[in-house]
Amino acid sequence: MSKTIVTSGKRKRAVARAAAREGKGVVKINNTRLDLVMPVLYRMRMQEPLVLAKDVASKMDIDIRVNGGGMSSQADAIRLAIAKCIVAFTKDSKIKKDFIAYDRQLLVADVRRKEPAKPNRHSQARAKVQKSYR
Questions:
Q1: Cα-flanking dihedrals φ and ψ of residue 117, to 5°?
Q2: Which of 10, 65, 103, 120 is the most exposed place for a label (fewest CB within 10 A)?
Q3: CATH number for the domain including 52?
């Protein structure tokens, strides 16, 4: 029985959960192959950790479930989950160093969130109510 590694990645409201196991290098996102994901810009962003760890990534299958957020934040959450999966699966410090040298956001989540709306401010987080004194 092969080992299965489960990791997660978050970006804004998007949450991606990835499960990796030994295989032939197939990556599926919500039961759709990564090769079929559109737009291409987000697909390329999701493929960055796979390209950096090409020899290792070709020996493992990764199945990802993602929900919440928009397209861009989902792509970043998937990217984070894939990179964490690869590092946890291989336990290789060289791959981890390569990821951090390329882009720290591959292994460290971006904790920024949307600022909550304030009361009596026309549903904006920072918009001020106009006042007229004359």
A1: -70, 145
A2: 120
A3: 3.30.230.10
